[in-house]
Write a structure and sequence with these properties.
By secondary structure, the chain is an all-alpha fold. The chain is 64% helix and 1% strand. It has helices spanning 42-49, 60-73, 82-103, 119-145, 151-176, 190-214, 226-242, 244-251, 255-258, 266-277, 284-311, 320-329, 332-339, 346-351, 353-377, 388-400, 406-439, and strands at residues 220-221, 224-225. It is globular, with a radius of gyration of 23 Å.
């Protein structure tokens, strides 16, 4: 039997029978080194092979819809690979994202501009999100139906979920319609948009981080979970399409008009609301955003509390504070990525919103997918993620160098986006190739079992 003698190098020639668990070992900058261009050590690849998915508690809606998802799965061809079901769902999100990009390239219109969003776009968005999530719930059932369940399916599923968050974000913007160009006082609608993006993607990372330490992926809090949120967003998009003009007016209504007893003191308007939010009073859509921020923050704090409590019971030759400190440090890089847009000048944030959002979003996808993979592999995850440096460097350069002209700034963020597209494609391909070879399976085709 081959054994691992160091957490830096693992013997890639002989698969490990009894893999070691390295996930509590602290690494500052670099994950374990592997030979032959692999991402995973042999310990890690074997850990994934024997990995068993443990979802959190299901809600009443999950249990109610489960028979429907099962019936729909039975309509699929028995020869259809489950990862293709996942991919078809992802195509819905890609189509919705590209559609919004094409018809609303600016995404955040100025206050006096006509909204680029039309009711039919919201209907398409509603269908795409509902279809995506339904297929997402069917892929695992198809895997069990075809006797082709594998850890690669979980990796592919959750990795695609991570990337689809950008499509969900653009859909919310399509009906919430955060608007306003920056002024000398505030950043207009762009900071609100990036607030939604930061809380959405960071909370998703924290859920994977919780699974890394506890082995359980949180699916719901009480009776509100991923299913309720996903179908709820699709329903909201559908209703906004039917009543777009009325709801657009509602979203722009001052909260003081709706609730006259909430009179905001003048000094609060002058010292807080106007310079920070750009309005003397909050509008309904801003209250919605603040509610979202609060909910996501609570979910993050609950995850942190569960992880710290779990680590307090661990005995790994290290003190509790060392384990907990190492865990918290792993949140630093994704948090820095999520928050970096807020330090950009308002005019740059507004004019380059699309590519800043995409580069930040892809950077978050990359560090999150790495967390998903290393969680299943029980492999050490570096506290400082080098992949964060590109977007953080672009943000710092944009902020500190006043010589930038608009064409140069546009090119900078396009290059940052391109870097993450290429980097993530190479990294994911290497992981999937290694695992498919290790498990002797094919990603998008059911392999005929030899007699």
């Amino acid at each position: 039997m081959s054994t691992t003698t160091s957490d830096n190098i693992s013997d890639d020639d002989v698969p490990h029978v009894n893999p070691y668990d390295w996930h509590l070992h602290h690494r500052w900058f670099f994950e374990p080194h592997t030979r032959k261009g692999n991402i995973l050590t042999q310990d890690g690849a074997t850990q994934i092979k024997i990995h068993a998915y443990q979802p959190g508690a299901y809600t009443m809606l999950d249990l109610t819809l489960n028979p429907i998802w099962t019936k729909l799965t039975e309509l699929l061809p028995i020869t259809l690979a489950p990862n293709l079901v996942t991919l078809y769902g992802g195509f819905h999100c890609l189509f919705a994202y590209l559609m919004i990009w094409y018809y609303a390239p600016n995404l955040i219109p100025a206050s006096d501009e006509k909204s680029p969003f039309q009711p039919w776009m919201l209907l398409v968005n509603a269908w795409c999100l509902a279809a995506y999530y339904t297929l997402d719930c069917m892929d695992g059932k198809q895997a069990r139906r075809t006797n082709s369940s594998s850890p690669v399916g979980q990796l592919f599923d959750h990795g695609l979920d991570c990337m689809c968050l950008l499509a969900h974000l653009s859909m919310v913007q399509a009906w919430a319609q955060l608007s306003g160009a920056p002024t000398e006082y505030h950043g207009g609608g762009a900071p609100w948009y990036f607030g939604l993006q930061a809380t959405l993607q960071f909370s998703f990372f924290v859920a994977q981080w919780e699974e890394y330490y506890t082995g359980v992926l949180p699916h719901a809090t009480g009776q509100i979970g991923v299913t309720e949120v996903s179908y709820g967003m699709a329903a909201a998009s559908f209703l906004n399409a039917l009543f777009m003009s009325d709801l657009s007016l509602f979203y722009s209504t001052s909260i003081e008009t709706i609730l006259p007893f909430l009179s905001i003191p003048r000094f609060v308007k002058d010292s807080v609301l106007l310079p920070i939010f750009g309005f003397e009073t909050l509008q309904t859509k801003h209250v919605f955003c603040l509610g979202w921020f609060t909910m996501m923050t609570m979910l993050v704090l609950l995850s942190i509390q569960r992880v710290l409590a779990h680590l307090a019971l661990k005995k790994n030759g290290k003190s509790t504070w060392q384990l907990q400190g190492s865990a918290l440090l792993k949140l630093a890089s994704p948090l820095a990525i999520a928050l970096c847009p807020f330090f950009l000048p308002h005019d740059i944030l507004y004019s380059e919103l699309r590519f800043i959002s995409l580069s930040v979003g892809l950077a978050m996808c990359l560090v999150t997918i790495k967390m998903i993979v290393f969680s299943m592999a029980k492999q050490a995850y570096a506290s400082v993620q080098g992949d964060a440096l590109v977007v953080l460097g672009a943000a710092a350069w944009s902020t500190l160098d006043a010589r930038w002209k608009p064409p140069g700034m546009h090119l900078l963020w396009q290059l940052a986006t391109l870097y993450y597209v290429v980097r993530m494609s190479i990294w994911i391909r290497a992981v999937l190739r290694q695992l498919c070879d290790r498990l002797d399976i094919e990603l998008f085709r059911l392999k005929v079992k030899k007699e």
